[in-house]
Structures are given as C-alpha cells and as structure tokens.
Amino acid sequence: MTAPQKRLGAQELVAAVASVVANEPDMIADMANIAAMIFEALPDLNWAGFYIWKEGQLVLGPFQGRMACTRIAYGKGVCGTVARERRTIIVPDVHAFPGHIACDAASASEIVVPVIAGDRLLGVLDVDSPVRERFSDTDRIMLEKIVDLLVRAIPVGTA
C-alpha cells in the first residue's frame, strides 16, 4: 500500500521547486528533486521524470515511478514528438495517440514538456497518469514554469 499523496496547488509546487533549484546548478540533481516533488505533490500519477537528449535520442534520466523505457527515438511516441516539435503536448488518452510507446500499460494520459535552453534541446519532462484526461491547461502552465526554473538554474554552457 502506498502513502497518500500530498496535494499541492500549482503556485505552491512552483514555489517549492524554485526554492530547491535556486542554489543547485547541477541539472541531474535538479531533475531528480523535481521528479520526486512532482510525483509526491500531484495526485493520480504513476510516473514523473525526465528523458535527457543524448546523441540524437532521448535517454532515461531521473524519475519516480515504475520501470521505464530506457531510450526513445527522436520523433517517436509522445516524448520523441515533443523533442521534435519542441512544444508541450497533453495527451488525454494515450491509446489514441498514433505511435504511443507503452512503457507502463497502466498509463492512460500523459503530458510532456520540452526542456530547452536557448535553442538547445536538453530533454523532456514526462508525467503519466493511470487516469484518462488527467492533465489540464493548468498543469501545462505549472509544468512549463517548473521546466523554466530548471533551465534558469543551470549555468549557461554546462547542460
């Protein structure tokens, strides 16, 4: 049995992330804490984490949740599509998304946010839920703010 998740409002979670990343310039450390904070704070999630852009593909980074796909090709699935299009995508029903990669069969909806510094793709933030239509525009705005805080915490040229 899992512990009940604490529910934080969007502003509260963004403020907590800002505090955690404020004095930590290491991208991996920040990603690890952000994944944990999102997973603990938001209800109805089964996965929250990052894929890091390496050598033309997305490679599994810090996350919370069940085992995940290790590598995702550019343009494939929701994460690869976000990497290619460099825009956030909310998928209300992953089974209706053409080419969806089912890392966890329990996932029903997903939101993926690109992590971009300047014009450089660093990776994506991927959040999954076993609940259909779990993610809203409010979630998109909140997660994009969190990604912006991550990017601003990383010194230029070190990511």
Automatic annotation (TrEMBL):
Chain ranges of the GAF domain: 26-158
Enzyme Commission number(s) from the entry: 1.8.4.14
SMART domains per UniProt: GAF (SM00065)
Classification via Gene3D superfamilies: 3.30.450.40
GO MF, any single term: L-methionine-(R)-S-oxide reductase activity
Domain of life: Bacteria
Family listed: Belongs to the free Met sulfoxide reductase family.
Entry protein name: Free methionine-R-sulfoxide reductase
Organism this protein belongs to: Komagataeibacter europaeus (Gluconacetobacter europaeus)
Native organism taxonomy: Bacteria, Pseudomonadati, Pseudomonadota, Alphaproteobacteria, Acetobacterales
